[in-house]
Amino acid sequence: MSAPTRSHLSDRAAGVRQSAVRDVFDIAMDPSLVSLAGGNPWLSGLPLEELGAAAARLVAQEGTTSLQYGPGQGTERMRQAACTVMAADGLPGADPDLVVVTPGSQAAIDTACRAFANPGDVVVVEDPTFVGALTSFTTWQLDAVATPTDEHGLVPAALDATLTRLRSEGRRVAFLYTIPSFANPSGLLLPEDRRDEVAEMCARHDVLIVEDNPYGQIAFDGAPLAPIAARHRERTVYLGTMSKIFSPGVRVGWALVPAALKREFYLCAESAFIHASTTSQMLATAFVEEFDWQGHVREVTGLYRARARALQTAVDEHWRPGFEYTAPRGGFFLWGRLPPGVDTVELMRAGIEAGAVFVPGAAFTPVEGMHSTLRLAYSFVDEDTLVEGVRRLAPVVQAAVESAERRRPTPSPLSRKAP
Ligand SMILES: Cc1ncc(COP(=O)(O)O)c(C=O)c1O
């Protein structure tokens, strides 16, 4: 029998490409490189011995439950723990009965596509947006349509125009996918008044919101801003995760779903993965119930703040002029821009030769073309290593900026303004 060929692939699988980011993550494992690529949380501050004892207890004493199938919607205690975490996100009073536990929020994004979107539908996204969500949208054969943002994130009036245009074109909009707090990759924080305006705009156009909030508690100056779901629960599917405040390896996240949609959402989730790992849910529950988890979040937030500042100082010293960025106010990422004409995919290749790696902006946008943006992650690398990475990349950045300047056409005398 001959080997299978691409003709055996479904249209949706044939359309999926390994993203530039995954390529970079594979390369970033090379220990000789400084990686400013991966948004990994820093785990060494966790109380590992005590967590180990909790994990041992879960198997030795509670193994007949922890190693068994569990409820499809997630264990009752994990759903309660999710409500505790959401209260700290600024979303108090969530009903555990409306929580569906998933293997990380990536699986919740995928379940949202499964539950709310038909092939060919539109998902409206901010540009840039999370690459894992873009991949899910491609897999579900959805069109990710970018709506304009400014230095504060989504622009409500532009969102209105985007939704009006899509309606006039007869497109079905499955949902708006948004990361209002310390977004991946932009780091932007959507102001409070805009959160309400975005929700009101979506209500006016009868569009559902999928609000993804892994970084809300990683706030460098002050308490987290209340999520959109806090005041607009009926229109919003809110996604939370243990990945950035505890561990991504446990693969525990969740969706808080409006009552009218919960049953179908949960059945769609069950059809994909039955339920999130019982053992993982019990360990994540133990972290919330038995440990000073908020103390841990405070500690890592302080660490990420210091790392973000060190990274800013380093790029100010080594990459200016030419490199512009938005100073992060929380989260894991610094998003920056080089002059037009610099291709950061090319820059990344040259950077790897120079001993450091970052993710080019093209990975995070549904818009084709050459991009001069890039994402630097500061969450996982200590301050000295961050500075070393920036230093290694400095000559490459400078060469790319100079080459773009040389190629830029000089304005003709006729187009020059009179003095
Ligand atoms: C915005 C965003 N959403 C979802 C995820 C996926 O997280 P999880 O580990 O919960 O699946 C990430 C991970 O980087 C993210 O940045």
Description:
The protein has 15 helices and 15 strands. The protein has helices spanning 11-14, 20-28, 48-60, 63-66, 76-89, 105-116, 131-139, 156-168, 192-204, 228-231, 259-273, 278-290, 293-318, 344-354, 383-407; strands at residues 34-35, 99-102, 122-126, 143-147, 149-150, 153-154, 173-178, 209-212, 236-241, 253-256, 324-326, 333-337, 356-357, 359-360, 373-377. Helix 9 links the parallel strand 7 and strand 8 (209-212). The protein is of the alpha/beta class and 419 residues long. Helix 13 (293-318) packs across helix 15. The protein is globular. The strands form four sheets. The chain has a seven-stranded mixed beta sheet, with helices on both faces. The protein folds into two domains: 9-38 and 295-403, Aspartate Aminotransferase, domain 1 (Alpha-Beta Complex); 69-291, Aspartate Aminotransferase, domain 2 (3-Layer(aba) Sandwich). It binds pyridoxal-5'-phosphate.
